[in-house]
Amino acid sequence: MSGKISRNGRLVQAVVVVFGLILQSSLANAADKVKIGVIGILAEAGLYVAAEHGYFAKEGLDVEFVKGLFGPDAFPALATGQVDAVGGAFGPEMINAVERGVNVRIAGGLSSYVPGFESGFLMVRKELIDQGKVKDFADLKGLKLAIIEPRPNLTDYFATRYLKLGGLTLNDVQTVNVPFPSMITALKTGGVDAAHVSEPLATIAVDAQAAVKFKPVNTYAPNGLTVAVLQFGTNLLEKSRETGERVIAAYMQGARDYLDALKKPEGRGEMAEILVKYTPVKNRALYDRIVFAYAAPDAGIDMTGLQDMANYYASVLGSKPVDAKTLVDAGFAQNALKRLGAYAH
Fold first, then answer.
1. Which of 35, 61, 187, 259 has an alpha carbon within 20 to 30 A of 164's alpha carbon?
2. How far is residue 121's CA from residue 126's CA, in Å, rounded to a whole number?
3. Among residues 84, 64, 30, which one has the least CA distance to residue 230?
4. How do the domains of the chain map onto residue ranges?
5. Distances from the Cα of 260 to the Cαs of 43, 46, 49, 235, 301, in angstroms?
6. Which residues contact 201 (CB under 8 A, 6 or more apart)?
7. Would the pTM of this model clear 0.85, i.e. be above it?
8. Domain 32-113+224-340 belongs to what architecture?
9. Nearest to 48 by CA among 59, 62, 38
């Protein structure tokens, strides 16, 4: 009888242990679910390569990309923990949130404008170029420029910089509110005369004979400007910093694969297939002609450029300039780099 009780006791213990392991596994999987708001643009390429090459999975993460969640609309979801991270451009919404005491921060850079990766252009209507009416920045005077509302944002920030090269300001031109998806139509119909446009829309505009790539963004943006960032919310900043470090580590590995692949002709094709899968642009042949965006292999941020953008946003809003360092939590990238080491260019 005692032997039977002993065997039953061991059986119960085994069941308890197995159940405990299953429960722990279930909790771990739940804790490692990460939602990232994305636009679906080339500047987010490192995230998509990380997903496709299995780096998020290897870091023990179940990542879901929430398409179309970016900019001001994303911050309520980020602040309340509905999403864990958000990609896209740095805008005044980050400054406003931090100043209101909301715990959101830039955790790392996704893409920068560096030589060889001039994936943005000042586009000018083809008719104006063909007629010789626009030969330099000063010739933009009086023309209609596409600026996304509400201001300030990246489009008017860039406009102030390229206009300044022609001795102009926004007061010397007509500004027209045009969403990015409507840029090509607006250029083709004459609704606007010039616009800052990123790839692949820039090449699509050229193909449609709507506009010409007048100047690459590197001629008017600060050298090395970080144009896309990964922003973390309270879930990763407070509840699970270690998970945040794994998100950044996975991204870094994806970005490194991406840059390494672009050094080889066959690698460019591989990256194109991934971008076709994860972005709205499905024309595979188009990727053979565009300028690919840069992916920051160490998640680095150009703080000089970030501060310049922050100063511009403050000047438009009439608010006190903010120290850009207060908007960044560099600890995630620093810890990931300790494990991965710096990227060997």
1. 187
2. 14
3. 84
4. 32-113+224-340, 120-219
5. 16, 12, 12, 32, 20
6. 180, 183, 184
7. yes
8. 3-Layer(aba) Sandwich (3.40)
9. 38
CB 32 within 8 A of CB 62: yes
Residue 136 CB contacts under 8 Å (≥ 6 apart), including other chains? 166
Bridge partner list, 37: 66, 86
Arithmetic mean of pLDDT over the chain: 90
Q: Name the architecture of domain 120-219.
A: 3-Layer(aba) Sandwich (3.40)
Instruction: List for the chain the helix, strand, coil content (%; round to 5).
Output: 50, 15, 30
Intrachain domains 32-113+224-340 and 120-219 with the same fold: yes
pLDDT value at residue 13: 53
10 Å CB burial of residue 212 (0-12, 13-18, 19+) is: buried
Q: Per the structure block, which two tokens stand in for 310?
A: 């922050």
CB 319 within 8 A of CB 129: no
